[in-house]
Amino acid sequence: MTPVADAPLAVPLSGTIPPAGPVRFVDRGGLFGLLVKNAVLTFLTVGIYRFWARAALRRYWWGSIVIAGDPLEYTGTGLELFVGFLMFLGIMLPFGLVYGLTALLAASNPLTGGLLRLVEAFLFLMLIQIVTFRARRYRLSRTLWRGVRASQGGSSWEYLLLVFKWTLLSVITLGIAVPWARIATTRYLMDRTALGDLEARFDGRGHHLVLPWIAPFVLLYGAFGVFLALNIDQIGKFGPGVVPRGIWLVVLGYVGAAVGFLIYLLIELRYTARHTRFGEVQLGSALSIGGIVLTIFGFLIVAMLVLFGFGLFAGLIIWLTGGGGAHAAGAAAMPSFASVIPAIVIVLIGSLFIGVLRILWVDRSIVRRLCDTMSLTNVDRLDRIGQSTAPIPSAGEGMADAFDIGAF
């Protein structure tokens, strides 16, 4: 493949999905029932069941992805994820103690306390990078195809140093270096990924992704610049009741930038697939970006309407069970604790409902499109694949699951 032919902007944002190829998504049914079961048990166990729910959902996704006629298999368990979470709590205990000490110090010495808080935030962000790497290694070690296990090599500390270097460069360059940073971290991960004895290689280059990365910034800052130009004579004169001219440009700029960043992530995902191979097996992708963007924004609109409806219902419950009576009697408007509990339950149910809707509407659509638009060349090489000899981690992701790091 040549760099020009594979540049991300060379492929239109929309297109038709080709017929089933060596990779496809098989909708096996039963997803709605699984999601309802997971939501109910997670609610009843105050969140503890989420680890088993995550493992069950992964088994569904993995089993629905068919490569060369055979599905993937996920062998991880909820208990492993739960044990990993307990390990994460043990690691985070010292962080909690330090956080409490810095809070006391900040009260007496704001400058020193503020600097320590910055150090804490930095260390926490670095910890997230280590967790991200280890979570990926765990997921791959629990992924089988035809009984052959995937693996992730490398070191979490090497990955951390790489992320730190590129984060520093991204800050110095005001974000311009981000495409190179993301390509560098992707290369580190993919070049140490394997399926059995087939080692992955990634040959992407950061300059291919510069234009789609910069485009949202140009849109945002351009809209804000026009807004300032329209109101240059009003600077310092704004007050209550004064609506700046062209305020809609700022709103449009932020919305456009959000869409632009989403498009960038999808372009990057498609680009990564096109520049990845496992041994002699080359991946390809004809992912339709426009369809995914419309799917996500359609879901966001419906989700906001649903949450608004649940919020109104919760408010009505509070009013009927306490707040409304207090107003009618001329008493204080503070509702009773007993009247708030049903409203909290309603809001939690609404949140779980939105989670189920997101997986059914967005996640399933994305996984299906990713699979059905992916191609493999030299697929016959998969018939001669050998088993991996990489070590298998024994615990789950812990913090990664607690903070929902990773798509699945």
TrEMBL record:
Keywords assigned by UniProt, alphabetized: Membrane, Transmembrane, Transmembrane helix
Membrane-crossing segments per the record: 31-52, 81-107, 114-135, 159-181, 210-232, 247-267, 287-320, 340-361
UniProt keyword DNA damage present: no
Pfam families: DUF898 (PF05987)
Matches recorded under InterPro entries: DUF898
Protein name: Membrane protein
Keyword Transmembrane helix in annotation: yes
